[in-house]
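Hello again, I could really use a second opinion on something today. For a while now I've been wondering how a particular protein folds. Please have a think about how the structure follows from the sequence. Here's the protein in full, and shout if anything looks odd to you:

***
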Amino acid sequence: MRAVTWQGKNDIRVTDVPDPHLQQPTDAIVRITSTAICGSDLHLYEVLGPFMTKGDVIGHEPMGIVEEVGSDVTGVRPGDRVVVPFTISCGECWMCRRGLQSQCETTQVTDQGSGAALLGYSSLYGAVPGGQAEYLRVPHAAYGLMPVHTDLPDERYLFLSDILPTAWQAVRYADLSEGDSLAVLGLGPVGQLAARIGHHLGLRVFGVDPVPERRAMAARHGVEVFDTTDDTMAELRDATEGRGPDAVVDAVGMEAHGSPFGGAAHAVAGVLPDAVARPFMRNAGIDRLAALHTAIELVRRGGTVSISGVYGGAASPLPLLTMFDKQLQIRMGQCNVRSWTQDLVPLAEASDDPLGLGDLVTHRLPLASAPEAYEMFQKKDDGCIKVVLDPTT
């Protein structure tokens, strides 16, 4: 089959790889009809190379048609249309029963000290082949696969695999009430959805991003948008009676600009031999922390910073004196996708599309165009906000 594979830093190729096959009675094989490029895929593209192996199949936002199921799989059968969550979880362990599927004790990658295994996301998370491919093996399929029961287009369901529940969790972790204020830093795909969810839940939402096309998209969905200028912080405080927003979602993560040390650390990690780079990344403060520092400074005293953007440094410094003095709450973590399914499926299927899922994808391209799509997404060229790849064309 054809699949998107990692070949090196900034080197993504579509190559021929072996077809997946059932390995456990709990597996299923899914023929992929749509698969998206996620912002966190860009971390593999540039930063997390030391944990990748040449030829790794990447991608973790897929959906498609079930082709084959193992003997222990119930609830889905060949021919079913399904969404595939990016977290691989069993649904039965202590963590899963408590809604912490991203910490699943059955699939935890203990040799790396990581949580649940993830599709297509480096040896840190199990080196499981991902979903930017024609076919995908899905472990623990009875719990993981989400059947689709309507004829709505893929784009109304696809993002249930990752970015929609990630955005929902970020807003829920902010723990706000109707009428409260929420600032979302970064209006990429997760930030777009977090801002729309906040607006849907009755919050006053501010969106901050330097890219005009992203601000324009958010504004179409009731978000008050701001560029990233020297005046932005003051403008947001003026809009909130001088206090700052009640909560801030950091939807940027390690790729934030504005931190020279973090940028240099990324560059160093990218050129070191893997055997040296891995411990360097595990023990160094490699992150660009501009967005997180902005969130901590911007949020009102007693407020909440909710982190959905991915960070990769084990020793990235934080302003603990400020955080303590402002009495902040910090919430974060890999998304527990299946915890939010019952909340989100009705919104995805609603006839009025309340979250505007039909207005997120800016580019739908054949799988063969993945290398160009990654470069375009990274550089934010051509108004690129969200890319969906089609393995069927």
Q: What stands out?
A: The domain at 164-332 is CATH 3.40.50.720 (Rossmann fold). The two ends are 13 Å apart (CA to CA).
